[in-house]
Specification:
single chain; about 300 residues; mainly beta; 4-stranded antiparallel sheet; 1 helix; globular
């Protein structure tokens, strides 16, 4: 497995049911699901750790919550599906994992697989789960873990920076999968059978980190702070931000963006916030920012914060 430098988490105060800073928020059957940076999953105020590692990717599919767990120090990774129709289970401790790292699985999972390469991206749609593994390929499985198709990674061209062909993101658009490489190339693939439909490029020098999409309207974020809206095969907006994009959503008119301690409209203004934004979450008709203190506050607003409980 490729070893990456991990982020150092600095403990800070959070709402009483939270043990660590939030990493991601999901909504399932009118319930909030909160994943934290230590791999804890909180539902209805109850937090469990099915596996004692951080979650690097997660997505809701027909079968539940599919996720990847990675521990770079122990050089291990798991992919598993957790049913959300029954209570989640607490997994083993990190100490126990160190003694049985080759056999320990994600507690309470419907299925769990040891993966021998770094997960690079993961998305799901209905019963299909698409993911990429470093130096391995792109895979599509169903929610029962049956492989439907696989593809090799994009070929690295001569005189390109190392790892430029590495998968940066996966988008799902209708019946197609769009796989993006770090250097801005993309490949459109049939979701049903894995047939490569077309290939293209953003056409600018970049080191893509994240890609967001609203149908065929894409927002791409580069590690140097550049952001591009890409639609109909061409760049429609280019803007240099102070940092990379943490999350973004298209509201029908423009892209709402959170980037470090800034709320941004791609074609409009910027507002500084005190805490780091984690994710945009829609409540009623309002777009709120979940920050690293576990608080909700309006995007581009300064109203009083709302706690997760």
């Amino acid at each position: 497995m490729r070893i990456l430098e991990g982020m150092v988490h600095k403990p800070s105060p959070h709402p009483r049911f939270m043990e660590s800073a939030p990493w991601g928020h999901f909504r399932h059957n009118d319930q909030d699901i909160l994943v934290d940076v230590e791999g804890g999953i909180t539902i209805a105020g109850n937090t469990v750790h099915p596996f004692p590692c951080e979650i690097t990717f997660a997505s809701l599919c027909d079968g539940g919550l599919v996720a990847t767990w990675v521990d770079h120090d122990l050089r291990l990774a798991r992919m598993a599906l957790l049913s959300l129709e029954e209570p989640l289970e607490e997994g083993v401790t990190k100490a126990t994992l160190r003694l049985s790292k080759d056999t320990t699985m994600v507690a309470g999972s419907k299925w769990c697989h040891i993966i021998d390469a770094e997960p690079l991206a993961l998305e799901s749609r209905g019963d299909k789960i698409i993911f990429a593994l470093w130096a391995r390929g792109i895979y599509c499985i169903d929610s029962s873990a049956n492989e439907l198709w696989r593809l090799s990674l994009m070929e690295e061209q001569d005189k390109t920076p190392p790892r430029s062909n590495e998968v940066a993101a996966i988008s799902i658009v209708a019946d197609e999968v769009v796989v993006w490489s770090r250097d801005g190339k993309y490949r459109r693939i049939s979701l049903s059978d894995g047939h490569v439909l077309s290939e293209g490029s953003l056409g600018v020098d970049c080191d893509l980190e994240k890609v967001f999409n609203d149908g065929d309207n894409f927002l791409l974020s580069s590690n140097d702070g550049w952001a591009w809206e890409f639609k109909d095969g061409q760049i429609t907006v280019a803007r240099k931000l102070r940092g990379t994009i943490q999350d973004a959503i298209h509201d029908g008119n423009d892209w709402k963006i959170i980037s470090w301690r800034e709320d941004i409209m791609l074609r409009g203004g910027t507002n500084t916030r005190t805490e780091l934004g984690v994710q945009l979450v829609k409540q009623d008709e309002n777009w709120l920012v979940l920050d690293n203190q576990g608080q909700f506050s309006p995007h581009l607003g300064d109203e009083n914060n709302h706690s997760l409980d």
